[in-house]
Amino acid sequence: MKLGTKLIHAGVAPDPSTGAIMTPIFQTSTYVQSAPGQHKGYEYARTQNPTRDALQNALAAIENGKFGISFGSGLAATDGVMKLLSPGDEVIASNDLYGGTYRIFTKVFERYGIKFQFINMQDAQNIKNYVTAKTRLIWIETPTNPLLNIIDIEATAQIAKQHNILLAVDNTFASPYLQNPLDLGADIVVHSATKYIGGHSDVVHGALIVKEEALAKQLYFIQNSCGAVPGPQDCFLVLRGLKTLHVRMQRHCENGAAIAKFLRQHPKVAKVYWCGFEDHPNHHIAKKQMRDFGGMISFTLKDDSQEAAFKVLSSTHLFSLAESLGGVESLIGHPASMTHASIPREERISNGLVDSLIRLSVGIEDVEDLIADLQQAIG
Ligand SMILES: *Cc1c(COP(=O)(O)O)cnc(C)c1O
Questions:
Q1: What atom of ligand 1 comes closest to residue 205's alpha carbon?
Q2: Ligand 1: which atom is nearest the Cα of residue 206?
Q3: Which atom of ligand 1 is nearest to the CA of 173?
Q4: 177 is an active site residue
Q5: What domains appear along the chain, each with residue ranges and CATH number?
Q6: Among 352, 317, 314, which residue's Cα sits nearest to residue 336?
Q7: H or E segment at 297?
Q8: What's the predicted TM-score (pTM) here?
Q9: Rounded to a whole number, what is the distance in angstroms from the first to the last CA of the chain?
Q10: Of 78, 84, 164, 236, whose CB is crowded by the most CB atoms within 10 A?
């Protein structure tokens, strides 16, 4: 079955008690038993909920996995992966991560005796230099936020397999429409479904998808034991959102390409970061592992002052100034003062994250209107 069909049909079936075509919101904490221990597969809603089951099965199908494990947020899903580890274990992570992921690794799990190495993975072979006998997990994100760097998933998976290390890929930016890390050898796919999968900026949700049953069992154990589960209403919203992922993503990609090209020829724009350009440093890898290039774009102005960037950021009408990404509406943001403000300025700038960098999450509006909005804001 192809992705568009899976998005609409996988995991869901009409409700057997009523015929309701949409999975109901099972807003219940417990389930009646006919005799002690005799029930219909549902005992208590932290452990199982039918709305969550439908979503977990749908998520597993759209990432070409076998098991989906849902959490209350993307970071709760990340927390679930880290709880596979024990004190003394080591993690190799890319040095260009979502800020919240960096925070939970360094501020929470380092205190529990897990050691992290944050390294440049633009050339995946560099990972080999950091593998030790204690390395249990490699954690990557591709494309990265906000500089749209690309990491070779297949090459990373080969290194992980050679050394018997788990590979987790945060696939939030690409979404299953653009890339399926399990097909390229990853063990765990991580999603903040808050972004493209939910797609409507109306729900916070996270998920893990795996193929291996033993790994899935460990993760379901953590989901139930630690309890960071999503509510049924949120599962319903994600299920509703994901049915249109393929049509939304197609438009995000078309609009993204048109806006990247518009920005690149604009006389006031210095540099445009978008992995669809042939001269993007890892364009060949993006082309190999992604089906298209997405709607996330960053750019800098020739006037590299923060004031010039702020003027653009406060002059758009259709692009709303806000954090987050992946919704139907276009957003504009300033990583240096918003999503990445916690990183010291020198470190930020040495990684290319300068004060004039502006990030766009291109929505699915009519692209002529979006371009006109940017044109008047940049001036
Ligand atoms: C937003 C985001 C997260 C965290 O997800 P939440 O749902 O906000 O907890 C993780 N990774 C990436 C790439 C993100 O953009």
A1: 7
A2: 7
A3: 13
A4: no
A5: 3-242 (3.40.640.10), 245-378 (3.90.1150.10)
A6: 352
A7: strand 296-301
A8: 0.96
A9: 47
A10: 78
Phi, psi of 91 (to 5 degrees): -125, 135
Q: Is 80 exceeded by the pLDDT of residue 347?
A: no
d(CA 24, CA 148): 38
Query: Average per-residue pLDDT in the chain?
Result: 96
**51 Cβ inside 6 Å of ligand 1:** no
Beta strands 320-321 and 331-333, pairing class: parallel
What separation in Å is there between the alpha carbon of 193 and the centre of ligand 1? 8
pLDDT digits (tens, 9 = 90+) for 192-207: 999 999 999 999 999 9
Q: What angle do helix axes 367-378 and 306-313 make, rounded to 10 degrees?
A: 140
Residue 215 has pLDDT above 80, yes or no: yes
Sign of CA dihedral 132, 135, 138, 139: negative
Distance CA(167)–CA(151), nearest Å, equals 13
Distance CA 224, CA 68 (A): 14
Residue with CA closest to ligand 1 atom 9: 74
Considering only CA atoms, which residue is closest to atom 1 of ligand 1?
A: 192
Measured CA to CA in angstroms, residue 144 lies from 10, 273, 282 at distances of: 29, 11, 12
Residue 345 has pLDDT above 90, yes or no: no
Q: Which of 52, 195, 348, 359 is catalytic?
A: 195
Residues in the chain: 379
pLDDT tens digits, one per residue of 6-43: 999 999 999 999 999 999 999 999 999 999 999 999 99
